[in-house]
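Comment on this:
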Amino acid sequence: MSSSRRGPFARLLRTQAEVDADRLETEATAQGATLVRDCQGGCVSTVSGRLRSVTLRPVGKAPAVEAELWDGTGRLTLLFLGRRRIPGITPGRHVVVHGRAIVRDGDRTMVNPRYELVPSSAE
C-alpha cells in the first residue's frame, strides 16, 4: 500500500485515487511490466497503465500526439511523431507500451513506442 496511513482502519480511510493507483500498480506488476517509477532513461522497457490524457501537440512544424500514461507509480509521456490522431489512443484506455524511455524536459518519455490496446471489460 503506497499510502502513509497505517493501522486497522487504513483501508477505510484511503481515497479512491489511492485505491486506483494501487490497483494499477498491482496489474502492471502481475503483467511483468516495468513500473514507471523504475524506468531509467536509455533503457528499453514495457510499461502497462491507463491513459489519463491525449493531446495533439506539434513538435516544431510536425504534428504529434502526446499521451500521458499512469500506472499508479508515476506518469510516462508517450509521444507519437507525425500523427494527428491514433484510433484507440483515448483517455481512460488501458495500454501496454514498449520502447526506450528517455528523460525529456524532466519527464520520462517514450517516442513512437509500440503499443497494444488492452480490451476493456465491456469489449
